[in-house]
Structures are given as C-alpha cells and as structure tokens.
Amino acid sequence: MGGYEMLDAHPLSIMIVTSAMLVTPLYLFCVYHYSGASVSKGLALAGIFLVWGSVMTWFSIANIPDALGPAGALVIPICWLVPSLLLFLNQDWVLAEPLSQRWLIGLQVWRLIGGVFLIEMINGNIPGIFAYPAGLGDMLVGVVALIVLLIFRSAAIPRWAVLLVIGLGVFDFLSAFLFGYLSTPGALQLFYPEIDNRVISYPTGLIPLFLVPYCIFFHALSWLSLKRGA
Question: Which helix (H) or strand (E) holds 217?
Fold first, then answer.
C-alpha cells in the first residue's frame, strides 16, 4: 500500500493535532474519574482509544483510504459510526455509573481545533469549499459548548443546553462530511476546487479519522446519559 505521505503543513497545525491526540485518552479517563465512576473502566476505554488513535495515525500517514481505491470512501463513515455503535451495544457497561454532563460537553470545546482547516486552507493544502464549513462549524460548536459551561458553571446543565450542543455538533459533522465528499474526486463530485482536497493526509487526516469519531462518541455518551437520567 505504497509509501508514506504528509501535507506540507504549518507547524502550528502539527502541534495542535498532535496535542489533541495525546490528550484524548487522558480526557476520557478524567471523565470517569471526576464523575465518580469506575476508574478501571476509564483506563480500559482510554487504552482502547489510545490504540485506535495509533492505528489511525498510520492510516493517515500511509494514505490507506486512497490506496484502497473506491472502497477507501467507506473508511471515514465506518470510523465515524463504529465507536458509537459499539457504545450503543455496550451502554449498560459503559454507563453503569452516571457520567458528568459538564465533562462530556467540555470535550466539545476542543472542537476549536477545527481552525486547523482554515490554517491549511491559507497554506494551500485544503480547498475553501471544505475548509470554511468544516473549520468554522467546528469552532462554532466549540464556542457554544464553552458558553454553556460558563453560563451553568455553578448549576446543573439543563436538558435543552445539552441537546443544543449535541444538535449543533452533529449538524456540523454532517455538513463537513457532505462538503468533503462532494469536493473529493469521485463519481459524486460536484465541486471542483483549484487544489485537491487532501484533508485525509497527515496531520489533518487525524481529525476525520480519529478526533471526529471521538467527538461523536462523546455526543452519544452525552445523549445516552441524558436519556438514562431522565
């Protein structure tokens, strides 16, 4: 499956994505620890995401989706769905103890790293038809999540606020997927930007391959926790 390929990315993009990758297992552990839930369960889930992040790093650097040809178009949807699907199938174990909505929503503040797409658009690596909706959408969700945490910093986060963050977050991902898919060479391409959409290459590739599924997993955790609490 060929050699390795990386974007000539801005150093800031590499630092932001790498930092986010390093923090994700620790953050998941903290969710369980500070929610008063099972610490061993938090460690187990953090370890699973650590391994998966390592595999996805190889996927991005080795450009596996492109190497798979037409089947490569299925990689991102599968990555987005599988963690949350496994959560739904094992929710009685994952959510045996209640988790803090404050910590679950807090993860979405990290969506501010979507600014990396705008940095790489300016750097000439990603077309604006994808970078604007994906980057600005992520940053909007991150700001809304931060505002919710600040407004309800000394009170329980109400149901409507949790659903607002989930709804905006899911809509942003669907929008990013649509513009990304329709601007990438293929049978359904509708947009033909001057530069190829190489978002799947390292380091930006770790966002759709790992960080987006991780955020979707947290949306699912947040929704299931809200449902079980109700």
Answer: helix 212-229
